[in-house]
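Batch job 17 of 40 flagged for manual review because the log was empty.
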Amino acid sequence: MNTIIQQKGNELWAIFEGRLDTAASAATEQDMQPLFNYGDGDIILDCSGLEYVSSSGLRLFLSLLKTTNPKGIHLYITGASEDLREIFDMTGFSSIFEFK
């Protein structure tokens, strides 16, 4: 699992590559720390390179959403494959997150 954090204008992007499963979630959470501390614009989670997300990965996304919402930061998911969208749909997360 690889996570790249990039500033693009007033947006902070997290680009995910690989499988966000239980084994990778602890390291990914560390890589995502700049997102939890961000306070100046939108956050975009680029999932175009994400092959799979487990419940541990979904928990990370939900935790980030709960941290950023009170700050008025919008969190968007982009590039989710049909398989990933299906996971979000099955878990009910597609009604919680905004997709671009």
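Reviewer: the log was empty due to a logging misconfiguration, but the result itself is present. The radius of gyration is 12 Å. Unflagging and moving on to job 18.
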